[in-house]
Amino acid sequence: MAEAERIIGTPDTPDDGGERAAAAGTPARPDASGPSDAGEPATPAQRRTGRGRRIAVLFAVAAFAYALDLISKLLVVAKLEHHEPIRLIGDLLELHAIRNPGAAFGFGAAFTVIFTLIAAAVIVVIIRLARKLYSFPWAIALGLLLGGALGNLTDRIFRAPGVFEGEVVDFIAPRGFAVFNLADSAIVCGGILIVLLSFRGLDPDGTVHKD
User: Fold this and answer.
1) Residue 15: active-site member
2) pLDDT tens across 151-181, in order?
């Protein structure tokens, strides 16, 4: 158990807690901030501090992803829209500005309002989940999801043709693939990380379990 926790970067569980959990037949839950210097389990104050740090990581990652997406879209609209695509890697990768009324990668153009509501719901769920967050890897994954969802939701609200029906600015155009943006990339990366963490048996609250 300790080796698995070390690999995925979760706090070590005190030996006595692990033994009690094993005896009860349930997985041990790592303490939020690890054992104290004296080898004792962390106090409630230390647990709150550990959770606060992970929440800070979540919102820092979200802010970074959101800022990159927002700045990139402002530059694309100002410098690239209504101009010829810019080739970055021959025919393999271009910067090509388009307005996308659908979901990520241009899917579902007829359901703009629905995708807007889904993005808003995802943001609410992530914020609520943050109250139980004790894992740094999960904080990064949820931060990427939150930043990406906020980036595209901003377009939905503030861009034409209207509130909740705004078209998202996409501009990254790989050959033979749909055009997307940095918010889409953050959402996909966050989703992949969540899948990997789930396969490793790590829950958002820091619990490590094995099937």
Assistant:
1) no
2) 999 999 999 888 888 899 999 999 998 899 9
Given 184, 203, 205, 211, which residue is catalytic? 184
How far apart are alpha carbons 62 and 129 in whole angstroms? Answer: 14
Torsion angle, CA of 184/186/189/193, rounded to 10 degrees?
-130
Active site residue 16: no
10 Å Cβ neighbour count for 128? 9
Note the pTM of the prediction, 2 decimals.
Answer: 0.75
184: left (phi over 0), alpha (psi -120 to 50) or beta: alpha
Q: Which of 170, 203, 205, 211 is catalytic?
A: 170
φ, ψ of residue 137 to 5 degrees: the values are -60, -40
Q: pLDDT, tens digit, for every residue of 1-25?
A: 444 444 334 444 444 444 444 444 4
Residues in the chain: 211
Confidence of residue 87 (pLDDT cuts 50, 70, 90): very high
CB crowding 152-190: b at 16 or more within 10 Å, else e = bbbbbeebeeeeeebbbbbbbbeeeebbbbbbbbbbbbb
Identify the pLDDT of residue 107: 57
Residue indicated by tokens 């600015």: 169
Could you tell me which of 96, 95, 112 has the C-alpha nearest to residue 159?
Answer: 112
Tokens of residue 192, six digits: 């992949």
Half-sphere exposure of 39 (CA within 13 A, CB side): 2
Cis peptide before 161 (omega within 30 of 0): yes
